[in-house]
Amino acid sequence: VMTERELIEWFIALPAYADYSKAIGQYNHELRYAGPENSKTLSFFIPETLYGINCNLAFYQHDALYAIGGDGEARFNADIKMMATALKIIEKTPDRWYLWGGNGIRRRLAERRLLKYYNAVRWGGKSSFNFHE
User: Fold this and answer.
1) Cα gap 49→18, rounded to integer Å
2) Whole-structure pTM over 0.90, yes or no?
3) Rounded to 5, what percent of the chain is helix, strand, coil?
4) Are residues 10 and 2 in contact, defined by beta-carbon separation less than 8 angstroms?
5) Could you tell me if 108 and 101 are in contact, meaning their C-beta atoms sit under 8 angstroms apart?
6) Which tens digit of pLDDT belongs to each residue from 88-110?
């Protein structure tokens, strides 16, 4: 279990963080990174939390990897890294619901919503990716 602060420290310590911050600036916990950058209206309706679990770090990472760009495989890897980072956050977030089984259900619901986000970026994110050779 890790606090939100510890999760941010873990993320900033990743070797790739230097590339992320170079691409889109340092992570700012006050900014919302979920949703497409080219549609503020749609982004408004896509929360950075999944059943109260803040996955904004994963969406920041995804935005940075899309800005860095590359080929189709790099796009696939960006989407997978978003998913993997969010799954770690879901796993490491402290329990909040004190009903028996509530936290497990909360995590499974968050994972289910994350899969929907993943499918959405695979389907509709191509236009936001910086393709180059």
Assistant:
1) 24
2) yes
3) 60, 5, 35
4) yes
5) no
6) 999 999 987 666 778 899 999 99
